[in-house]
Amino acid sequence: MSETGESLNFIEHIVEEDLENGYSVSDLRFRFPPEPNGYLHIGHASSICLNFGLGLRYNAPVNLRFDDTNPIKEEQAYVDAIKRDVEWLGYTWDTERYASDNFQQLYEWAIKLVKEGKAYVDSQSSEEMAAQKGTPYEPGSNSPHRNRSVEKNLELFEGMKDGKFEEGAHVLRAKIDMASQNMLMRDPIMYRVLHKPHHRTNTDWCIYPMYDWTHGESDYIEQISHSLCTLEFAMHRELYDWFLDQVVDSEKIRPKQREFARRNLSHTVVSKRKLLQLVEQKVVYGWDDPRMPTISGLRRRGYTPEAIRNFADTIGIAKRENLIDVSLLEFHAREHLNKIAPRVMAVLDPVKVVITNYPEGEEEWLETENNPEDESAGTRQIPFSKEIYIERADFKEEANRKFFRLKLGGEVRLKSAYIIKAESCSKDSEGNIVEIQCSYDPKSKSGSGTEESMRKVKGTLHWVSVKHAIEAEVRLYDRLFSDESPDTHKDKDYMDFINPDALEVITAYLEPSLRKTKIGDRVQFQRLGYFCVDPDSSQEKLVFNRTVGLRDTWAKIQDK
């Protein structure tokens, strides 16, 4: 139980109250129940962190259960991706379960309801059933098949199971109340005929249980104490409890459904249907495209599990939905990467600098720190030579006093190297600068302890030796949508807000130490941002993804 004075969210308060009112800690069991019909996204992270966090808090088991009741949309590949994502986030489940494990028990319970007159086979079309459903203000009307005999219902239901009927010919419905104010209680469908192979049961079944019938009963079979779901299922709670009423044993734990608010993230969508549409229409390269809000996409982009968990902790658990600005997620990425990412030098938009008074053909190796946030990270050697690359934006022929980078007649320090002074520059026929001629002070070497090395200059630039530079593909990712809430416009489709600048691919030049990086390694390109080695990398060609810039520049772009 919680320590006195500790701040609890409302879900934790519910658990604490149950412990005070008769539950023991050994009664607690939680679950994370994804449907394997797509990849997990950032919206699932809150649910994962909530359920597994409760497990850690109370030393209680947490099941990973796949609610696999729709063979049309579900695949083993999605199961594998979900398991991979949960493990990557740092959580371990107690038992791996599937709703399909319970198909036989669910069928037997359905037979029980038919025999008790609480379920019947309806042979109407879906259009006819919808017409009889009524409205929130008007009661529905009974199906003409609602009072079929128990014997006829059993015969038809068994025929459904045995594959004797086409899809849509019959459904099994619970017999509840067609006048209920909660329209979900108006004789909901429990089973439909689907002649589709299941990713686990293959063709063993040709009837499949509906989600509402399956979910609560699976919670009960697994003895889940608290079934936590998002607010969209609040109206389903009455049906959840009605179905449980039909099967529970008073000697066993009865699951308790409670709802929390979905947290939507700005500048993206988190509907699996819409994410699948992005994949199928090739707006992105796949579910793990770094522009996607999927956990796999965020991992590939370079986010850390710690950053995502910290983000989930910060936004917390609430009872009302709201829109979380993606800049908060980016903040947590920067905060963690700042602590762990080695600093390296890379030039993304190069212009050549020739140090005219540096000896021809000479090179030297200079010492530089790996991470000023982590003394144990040590140092490394970087090569210096007569020709180097700097960023094009770091040079202007003329500039005002507030420009602290390189300008004609001005001085800057090269990171961990020397002070240089721009003497002249060369241009091509179109007026673009192609080379900058500089002189250097040989006594100003960083760390040498000389008076010249301690001379203060206002600007420090990153750089890469031309002779030693590695060419690499760098993918500059930005937000996938230009609008903060792209799927809430009544008069526009969310696809209308795709950001055309969400991906830019360039050739960059990197210091040679980066040859040793491996897929998934994260680094800070000094003064530019945080980057991650993409799985497309090979020994012949490095590929880096930009995770996030050093600062949030989106607000300035939006202002313009």
UniProtKB/TrEMBL annotation:
Residues 341-441 form the Glutamyl/glutaminyl-tRNA synthetase class Ib anti-codon binding domain. Coiled coil: none annotated. Pfam families: tRNA-synt_1c (PF00749), tRNA-synt_1c_C (PF03950), tRNA-synt_1c_C2 (PF20974). Belongs to the class-I aminoacyl-tRNA synthetase family. Residues 125-148 are annotated as: Disordered. Residues 460-534 form the tRNA synthetases class I (E and Q) anti-codon binding domain. Residues 28-338 form the Glutamyl/glutaminyl-tRNA synthetase class Ib catalytic domain. One of its GO terms (biological process) is glutaminyl-tRNA aminoacylation. Its EC number is 6.1.1.18. It is an enzyme of class 6 (ligase). Keywords: Aminoacyl-tRNA synthetase, ATP-binding, Cytoplasm, Ligase, Nucleotide-binding, Protein biosynthesis. Signal peptide: none annotated. GO terms for molecular function: ATP binding; glutamine-tRNA ligase activity. This is Glutamine--tRNA ligase. InterPro entries: aa-tRNA-synth_I_CS (IPR001412), Gln-tRNA-synth (IPR004514), Gln/Glu-tRNA_Ligase (IPR050132), Glu/Gln-tRNA-synth_Ib_cat-dom (IPR020058), Glu/Gln-tRNA-synth_Ib_codon-bd (IPR020059), Rbsml_bL25/Gln-tRNA_synth_N (IPR020056), Ribosomal_bL25/Gln-tRNA_synth (IPR011035), Rossmann-like_a/b/a_fold (IPR014729). GO terms for cellular component: cytosol.
